[in-house]
């Protein structure tokens, strides 16, 4: 009988406490699946006194994450403190340096220092597992690392932030404004007091950077991700999406293009028939386009203590079973530099909503500017406010116009809209949303 | 550098040829992911002369699957011949007996002999991998075996047969009959000339038996699965489902109940809002309900040469990496006997469609019979044929009545409907379809 795997856990919040509980209650099944026992032997957290609802008797309390990371009595260091800096960074580095395996749910740490940490894991022979960092219990890391080991990937994209999807779902279903839905999300605990990290797309960008590295064998680099958030989305965009056969989602998209690997996070129109369009509320989903095979979509909870703990425990079980995958799917020497594909060269369809000062004269002017950039229009919808009734004072009222373009380049769209703005035929700035086809 | 994994492939149809091609074209990535090379060194198939579009030069041609299975030059035997009997069975047994690892896509073999083969794998130390046997490239086996290693499973259910889902989708979207859609499916190559294996639910039952074993730690046993097919489904059932907020799918469901593990395959009403309800055409999907976490749904192609080959190659890569999982997730000694939970004790809601001879008198009679069995009715819909116009001859015409019950036991439903039939207040036999809540 192999000796049990000895685990040390740093961070005993909701996730950490649930990991302790699962390892205790599922001991027999875990031992059966792993071929050896798994035991939590030491923990550390900020407060020893805090009530956590789990029995920590018989588990050593270590004062300092660094001391736990290099504790001679543990084989596997579980980092659940969060944050891309210390103490998480130094503790994980120390554990890997000591030849221990590391399991972490820390997306920020991986997006920023993933390459350095993977190098340390490779050098010293420990595993570096992080299924919980993206999509919690949805097995997306395992699927990219192992499940599609022999299949080239063309594109991976998904809804990676439950807060944004909750807000967009409410806006769509109830016609509410972004601000109202954000307030509700905060009240329900789905959004932080400072919501920027979620709603401005940075959380999605960190997760996308990790997925892109696994899918394409590039060095993980959050800085290579183009990011736009959802705060500019208006209820009329969601209404128009619905009319046109789309849904509006904040997507993270990593795709192989002629100019390199595009990594981008932005509000996106997706066809209603796509699997990703069906994903509502706080649920997350990832779609993987493998070479020659129809898309595979994984849907589930992207956050939550139990779902995150489930993935952490599965990662620990893999360590117990002796699985040592390359953290990013390939040896460090095979990982390629991430060239940030310029968004100006992005190719795709566009949704453009603008306020025409005087329809149809303006429409002709806009069409001309788009034609100059060789942009073809798939559809144009003009909605009269007030059901089309002429205003009482006889003055022209700005009229919302919505255009859908065929696939074109982003710089052409930008040039055309700059010219339209110069022409002074529209009020305010146009709303531009990219379309992602399935 | 570790020596490359030497692979022998038995069966060179679409899948086998694609496996050879992938191992060749993805060699570098596979070696990077696995830590060692993978080489096809020997093959066997019925016809050596057949054109397959892959280069077999440099690969030994072995005449007989059994000889290949025990070939001293191979480490891993890949069985792609199909069928639950010989030569597949004896070849896989021989390979495992010789201590080799086996990768197979053969659901029939596993559903029938999985336990015996897993025992042989455990005894002799080889891997037995079969990701492709259920849902092709959808990583459902890996997710149950490894991704949810530490999470108890309450239920696993899914759309496991593309033929049936294609037929039901066409029936729903175009109002066509089962027979018409089956004919189209046959014309398009989605259904066999003898469609019984698919449309009567046996293909789904084999796959479900495998999933149930992985989810619940029971000994795989196709005979423990209750099976109903889709041939009795009428367009009016699909129309009624739509009106009532459901979609109609052929589901395989394995669920932990008070009386044991229920394994059942039958046409099922699923709420339109569920992930599984969105799955259209030949696409497959599996939903896993883990303890304490929201459902995880995996969606993708359930068949096809490239998708199946993708899973086979991933399984081979796992063998190359040295991963030896218990075939059914736990050691043989921990697998429990499968007690067939009696369908009479199944608990759930029911859709009942019948032809009342004379409405509303009949409705009262039916309501009485249901009440006698303590079945509560959630809704009742009565549709007059001919828009409710009285027939010209003044005679009463049978009227379709649709009932939705609250959760009740199957035996209560059967008794109530037997009494209704005895009362002679309905024409023909009632249509009964189970409802599965998400």
CATH superfamily of the largest domain in chain A: NAD(P)-binding Rossmann-like Domain
Q: Note the beta-strand portion of chain A.
A: 15-25%
What's the number of extended β-strand segments of chain A? 17
Average pLDDT taken over every residue of chain A: 93
Shape of chain A: elongated
Q: How large is the radius of gyration of chain A?
A: 25 Å
Question: How can the largest sheet of chain A be summarized?
Answer: 11 strands, mixed
In DSSP terms (H or I, runs of 4 or more residues), the helix count of chain A works out at 14
CATH class division of the largest domain in chain A:
Alpha Beta
Going by CATH, the architecture of the largest domain in chain A would be: 3-Layer(aba) Sandwich
Q: What is the helix fraction of residues of chain A, given as a range?
A: 25-40%
Integer count of domains of chain A = 3
Low-confidence stretches of chain A: none
Largest interface chains and counts: A-B, 62 and 60 residues
Could you describe the 3D structure shown?
- Two copies of one chain form a homodimer.
- Chain A is α/β, with parallel strands linked by helices and 438 residues long.
- Chain A is built from 14 helices and 17 strands.
- Chain A has helices spanning 14-25, 27-34, 65-69, 88-97, 107-124, 140-147, 162-174, 178-187, 196-199, 202-216, 235-243, 305-320, 361-372, 410-422; strands spanning 5-10, 38-44, 60-61, 76-79, 101-104, 128-129, 153-159, 226-227, 246-257, 260-271, 283-290, 296-301, 347-356, 377-382, 399-405, 408-409, 426-435.
- In chain A, strands 7, 8, 9, 10, 11, 12, 13, 14, 15, 16 and 17 form an eleven-stranded mixed beta sheet that branches. Chain A has a six-stranded parallel beta sheet with strand order 3-2-1-4-5-6, with helices on both faces.
- In chain A, helix 7 (162-174) crosses helix 8 (178-187).
- Chain A is elongated and about 85 Å long.
- The relative contact order of chain A is 0.13.
- Chains A and B meet through helix 2, helix 6, strand 12 and helix 12 of A and helix 2, helix 6, strand 12 and helix 12 of B.
